[in-house]
Design brief:
Helix content: over 70%
Radius of gyration: 22 Å
Largest sheet: none
Order of helices and strands: H
C-alpha cells in the first residue's frame, strides 16, 4: 500500500515538474522570439534611415 502511494505521488510530482519545465521552455522561447523580432525590426529601421 505504501509503495503504491509513493509511486503515485512520485509520478504526480514528476508530471507537475515536467509541466513547469515545459511552460518555462515555452516562455523562454517566446521571449527569445520577441527579442529576435525586435532586433530585426531595429536593423530594418536603421537600414531605412541609412539610405
Amino acid at each position: 500500500m505504501l509503495a503504491t502511494l509513493a509511486a503515485m505521488s512520485g509520478a504526480i510530482c514528476g508530471f507537475l515538474l515536467a509541466g513547469h519545465i515545459g511552460m518555462a521552455a515555452v516562455s523562454i522561447s517566446s521571449v527569445l522570439a520577441g527579442m529576435a523580432a525586435g532586433y530585426l525590426g531595429r536593423r530594418l529601421v536603421s537600414q531605412d534611415q541609412a539610405e
